[in-house]
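ok new one. same drill as before - structure tokens go in, u give me an amino acid for every spot. 298 of them this time. try not to just spam alanines like last time pls lmao
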């Protein structure tokens, strides 16, 4: 198995100097051809590869176990079905990368560039996207309960039908984002910018919207039961009705469209339903080096 790595050694020297390549779970995964922009499925990476240049690489099905790829460049790379377990991609450039169907547990994508990236049907429970650039990203069907999107730039992104229970969107720029049909119970949207965002058919029960901006946002058929609307300016929001507001928590500081009235807090008060992220798995042990070749016989 290690022989095939030695065969490709001349092509992976730049990466091997800082990256530990761990054995794959299938024989075919033991080959790597980074020079040809291809890495076989199920190759597992550990160790450090900070600021590596891996743009355009084919990394489908790769596993990143406790790996440090901070500041790495993976522009347009194919990371479909990849696994990110406790991996650090903070500050990495993943713009236009395809991460569809990938799984992220305890991973850090803080301040990463994921603009125009595809994260369709991704599991990202408890993952940090704090201050990341997710503008125009495709995040439909994202399962990101308890994830942190605080201070992220998400203009034009799509999060339709996402599972976002207990997620943090505080001080996030989500102008024009579509949250249609998403589950956002207990999510925190405080002091964020959600102008022209779509919350059609979105479940915002017990969510915290305090201090956020919603001019032009669409709330048609959204559920706001026990949602905290204190200090929120909804005067220019669209498709709000009195029935929605009667189930929410409002006060004198809540600004509403003409004809709608703030009536306090009903239904027992707001209750947050945060979600704790799972403990990330430990990084795998490094494999033992292969035995040296036998001395040639005379």
């Amino acid at each position: 198995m290690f022989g095939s790595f030695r065969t490709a050694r001349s092509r992976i020297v730049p990466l091997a100097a800082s990256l530990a390549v761990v054995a794959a779970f299938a024989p075919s995964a033991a080959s790597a051809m980074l020079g040809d922009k291809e890495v076989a499925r199920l190759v597992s990476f550990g160790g450090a590869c900070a600021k590596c240049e891996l743009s355009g690489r084919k990394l489908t099905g790769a596993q990143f176990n406790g790996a440090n790829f901070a500041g790495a460049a993976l522009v347009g790379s194919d990371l479909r079905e990849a696994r990110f377990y406790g991996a650090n991609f903070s500050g990495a450039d993943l713009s236009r990368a395809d991460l569809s169907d990938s799984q992220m547990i305890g991973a850090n994508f803080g301040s990463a560039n994921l603009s125009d990236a595809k994260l369709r049907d991704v599991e990202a429970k408890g993952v940090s996207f704090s201050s990341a650039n997710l503008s125009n990203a495709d995040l439909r069907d994202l399962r990101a309960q308890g994830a942190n999107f605080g201070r992220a730039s998400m203009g034009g992104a799509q999060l339709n039908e996402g599972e976002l229970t207990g997620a943090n969107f505080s001080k996030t720029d989500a102008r024009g984002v579509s949250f249609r049909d998403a589950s956002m119970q207990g999510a925190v949207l405080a002091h964020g910018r959600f102008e022209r965002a779509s919350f059609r058919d979105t479940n915002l029960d017990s969510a915290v919207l305090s201090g956020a901006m919603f001019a032009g946002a669409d709330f048609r058929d959204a559920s706001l039961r026990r949602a905290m609307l204190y200090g929120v300016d909804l005067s220019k929001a669209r498709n709000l009705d009195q029935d929605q507001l009667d189930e929410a928590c409002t006060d004198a500081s809540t600004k509403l469209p003409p004809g709608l009235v703030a009536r306090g807090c009903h239904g027992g008060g707001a209750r947050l339903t945060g979600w704790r992220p799972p403990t990330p798995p430990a990084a795998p042990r490094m494999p033992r080096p292969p035995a040296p070749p036998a001395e040639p016989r005379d």
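Helices lie at 2-7, 9-16, 242-246. and btw The radius of gyration is 23 Å.
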